Amino acid sequence: MLTVVVPVHNVARYLDICLESLAASTYRDLSVVLVDDGSTDGSGDLADAWPERDPRFRVVHQSNHGLGAARNAGAAVAGGDYLAFVDADDVLPPYAFEVLVNALEQTGSDFATGDVALLTSGKLSPSPLHRGTHRETRLAVDPRAHRYLVYDRLACNKVWRRSFWGDTRFPEGVHYEDIPVTVPLYGRSRQVDVVGLPVYYWRQRPPGDPSISQRLAEQRNLDDRFAAVVSALSALEGSFATWYAETALQSDLRLVLEVLPDADEAYRHRFRKLAAAFLADVDDGVLSRLPSRLAEAWRLTRDGEIDAVVELVSRVRAGKTAGGGVAVSGAAPGGGLAGSGAAPGEGVVGSGVAPAGGMAAWRDPVAPVVRAAGVRWSGDRLRISLAGSSAPVGLLWLREGAPGARAVALPAVGGAGTLSPSRLRGKAGWAPGEWTVNVAPARGAARGLLRVTDPIALPSRWVGGALVAPVVRGGVLRVAVDQPEVFAAEAGEDAGDLYVDGFGHLAPGTLFHLERAPGVPSLAYPVIAAGPKWMARVPLADLTAAIGRPGVPAEPPATWRAALPGPDGETVPLLAGPRLTERAAGPVRVGPDERGVLRVVAAG
């Protein structure tokens, strides 16, 4: 069982919307503890009505002690194997707890964390804070090998294993309760599950009704933010502590640095005192790893040169370099974080403080790279276009990653190259493999890899018995060739079921999986195999029940990918065969996605 703790304090405007999303969860084995923390706007009365609507809800009333105390009170009466926290003005998609708990059941990890979307005036958008940490699903990872995960400091986009949570308590009477809890738990955990699917809709309140995180320029927020970071850091040891100090200077503490031009003298004086105390224990080597202008800002702060800090921050916010020119954002090639130590492009939505691009405004300029602008099929040829007409292609070629490393030159004109997939076929026929796209601009820049820094469509196509699919790995465009031994040949509706017929030998007892997140099965059904053919059936009633009621109208439709067990026990995506096209099947549509994987999507 999962217990969800919801602190409630003067959120009458949002409470029912939040609780309705919890009641609609497709994970049914849950208990919801509402902690009314001395509300004065009728929120407590709204909470009291919920146990009659849904017996899984119960209410605890207490005098106002703050968010941390309310969370602690709820956790103290929580039962079950898992624990989660939800703020009463936020919303969850129906599948959120299903995916997070299923991941933990499969891996045995200490906690699972999912991606976050911002909910602003009814619309959803990616959370800048989580852009790098939740780029893809990764199960059972060691936080020490993925240290950038500590940028994800929310407590509410996670499900915690109760035995791991233990007697953990949130600090009381302060803001920013999450940081002193989540950061040390990352440091203490042996493995975590990271789900690259939004599991939490973080509401950004309108002007006049700001949340705590939207009131950065208040002195109490300044004090509490420094206190939270110091508390988290004191609970860490060794290289993880050093890494978190670097992280804090690029994220939490950078945010209060950026409001200095708008702050009064009292705020600036307090900032100087708190920052000097923090920086006194930070090794200069940490500062040397920061972007140069951010490192300069913190060195000036350490030396008490606040007027110079304010001037530097103002220049950065205006998008200007020290020499007066326009700053280059300097986003790392590939736009990713893995192994780079770079901070996500964090911003504060609705704060009234407008850093020019968040962390991206501070990053050092980088050498220009040639980027892919798009990939599309033109007839039976794959056309790869480059961003920026100012850098026409001198040479575009693919190099095979397998032994032998064959290279294939592409006919290139202007800012694009064209690939005939048959050129990737060897003398002995098609063979699975992956080809890396390389480029040499006609002028100036050295040859290098073709980078992908912005999302682009990656359509796949069957060519002569092989699936040719452009993919992005490590921020680099590649072309994968796959000749699957097992694939789905046909899918549709039959007698109240979704049927999937396929080719390929499958062992007795094989399960057909539908996964909301890669590697995290949601639904599983036995396969009926007969020689080189097999069939799977999914009751449409199961899919109807699993679709769930959307938490907000803007929510994307429920989506699953089909998968089969792989040789190492993990699931692998099931590819759709060359003749399988999308069609309706009761409450869903079934067909290949752009990468050729069989996908099931809620209709309507």
From TrEMBL:
**Boundaries of each Glycosyltransferase 2-like domain copy?**
3-117
Origin, by domain of life?
A: Bacteria
Entry's transmembrane regions: none
Cross-referenced PANTHER family: GLYCOSYLTRANSFERASE (PTHR22916), UDP-GLCNAC:BETAGAL BETA-1,3-N-ACETYLGLUCOSAMINYLTRANSFERASE-LIKE PROTEIN 1 (PTHR22916:SF3)
According to UniProt, the name of this protein is: Glycosyltransferase 2-like domain-containing protein
Q: Which organism is it from?
A: Asanoa siamensis
